[in-house]
Amino acid sequence: MSAADIRPVLEATSLLKTYGKVVALDHADFALFPGEVLAVIGDNGAGKSTLIKCLSGAEIPNGGEMRLDGELIGFKRPIEARAAGIETVYQTLAVAPSLDIATNLYLGREERKAGPLGNVLRMLDHSGMRQRAKAQMTSLGIGTLQNMGQAVETLSGGQRQAVSVARAAAFGSKVIILDEPTAALGVRESAQVLKLIRSLRDRGMPVILISHNMPQVFEVADRIHVQRLGKRAAVITPSAVSITDVVAIMTGALTVDAKDQTLGPIR
Amino acid sequence: MSDATASVGYDAAEEFDGSRTPLQRLQSLLHTYPWLSPAIVLVLALIVFSLLSGNFATPSNLGTITQQTAVVGTLAIGQTLIILTAGIDLSCGAIMVFASMVMAKMAFDQGIPGLPALLLGVVVGGLAGALNGFLITRVKLPPFIVTLGSLGIFTSLTLLYATGRTVRNTELASELKWLGHPFSIGGFRLTTGVLFMIALYAVFAYVLRYTAWGTHVYAVGDDPDAARLAGIQNNRVLVSTYAVAGVIFAIAGWILIGRVNAASPNSGVEANLDSITAVVIGGTSLFGGRGRIIGSLIGALIVGVVDNGLSVAGLDQAYKQLAIGVLIIGAVSADQWIRKARA
């Protein structure tokens, strides 16, 4: 199967973003295919986070176009990207610590009970939300968390990140963006999160992983998007390339011909 | 690899459930039930004052304590909502007295019937709260500064509006005195105001526990960034919280009229700080996002019991300040400790 046969889930062509005289994105291209984990790496200032911010609605590009499932998109605020199905999990553990797991999963989209209790008295369906939260966590392989009524602050960092990821995966999302999900975590907790990323992929969810951690990227990514000087410098299949080569591309010591960039095989 | 990660999860679960010291178990218990420690303090205070004086634990005296608690206890409901959002309202007592003067004077001076005058006072309370919320969210001033300012503003507006004059019992519209009606249940002397306060606690316990708005009040105070990322409009939640609290303060003003049987610009002076004291002693965290409203009722009762107990036992009222001071520092220290509870 070659890339040309499959339509990208999320695609950007010739994105341009400038901050005054600084060119953060210089006609950058991007493509995420169904069911893959695409890592985005790049040196500081390569435009990596600007690219992600444009995709997640946190920044508005000055030029170029973005497509989700082939449809042209243009977000003014992150909430719009989210409504369209692009969920972002931020590096800082974005969960409310004193609230419980189920409440965090459903925060901002609480479900009410059916009938007059819900319609008139606005009563939330706590038990239903807990059950569904539990099912969601189990399906992601985080079944070790038994009690959905447990406050998030009693969890380990990895478990908290798992709650954020589960929330992102829960609401009919089409793409999940993970921004440095292991940056704040230890080795064992990082392993939990990587396992979670794999189980997301196994469920057919495309994942964009932004990371500085090369070994982790090589462990979990299907393809690697290397960003350099505001452009896509290469798209690589980890099995075909060594970490040293990737670092060489990142720093500009090695260049990849533009026509070869998108030809890395898809899983 | 996957085996290794699975065992990591298992270990973490074990760590959470198993082998903890009694102190850690207490910490986690208080973490789940923040009103537990104030409840223990209340029981201890009741026992101590019963031993000090035979006149304390009589049904009629205990009824009196609830009457003395009704005003501060009602204010504490609104104050709890605000403190849960990590805010504070120093102007709550001033809003209460202002609203009570509006109710009384509209009925007496303007000849408006009692019920519309009452509603007008409630609306004024809600607007006063909304003004605080507006200044906090739009002008982005700290709640402490905003309400310190509005404390002065509402206090002086009240004095100017009342022209220093009390609306006396005989001049009050009868609707405004509804919450002062006394009645007895098995020797306990209660008032309609006490019942009204308890009903309000039940309503807001429900709202905080079972509605999305209640969840958002907690979330905004717990972690504003997480709330925003979850799609909650923090400013809207904050303004509505201050406005709802303003309505509750106005209702406290209604109870106040029933309690003192008059509407005086000089009543309820200590109520500002007393309501904060009740909330803090009740186990609600001043850092927001943590606490139960029932704790504030217990906190208000503790203040009432200490106050009443000292007079009944014939002790110096100066001990009240001492006891309350110790309780506040103790409650905040306990909160700091509980917040560190981790698996």
Please describe what this structure looks like.
The complex is a heterodimer of chains A (267) and B (343). Chain A has helices at residues 48-55, 78-84, 101-105, 116-119, 126-139, 157-170, 187-202, 214-220, 243-251, and strands spanning 10-19, 22-32, 37-42, 63-68, 71-73, 86-89, 175-179, 207-210, 223-228, 231-236. Chain A is of the alpha/beta class and 267 residues long. Chain A has a six-stranded mixed beta sheet, with helices on both faces. In chain A, strands 2-1-4-5 form a four-stranded antiparallel beta sheet, covered by helices on one side. In chain A, helix 6 packs parallel to helix 7 (187-202). The longest helix of chain A is centred in the C-terminal third of the chain and has 16 residues, at 187-202. Chain A is globular and about 60 Å long. In chain A, 47% of the residues are buried. Mean pLDDT of chain A is 86; it is low at 263-267. By secondary structure, chain B is mainly α. In chain B, strands 1-2 form a two-stranded antiparallel sheet. In chain B, helix 4 (59-84) packs antiparallel against helix 13 (293-312), helix 5 (92-108) packs across helix 11 and helix 6 packs antiparallel against helix 11. The two termini of chain B are 25 Å apart. Classes of the chains: A alpha/beta (267), B mainly alpha (343). Chains A and B meet through helix 2, helix 6 and helix 7 of A and helix 1, helix 2, helix 9 and helix 10 of B.
Short description:
The complex is a heterodimer of chains A (267) and B (343). Chain A is of the alpha/beta class and 267 residues long.
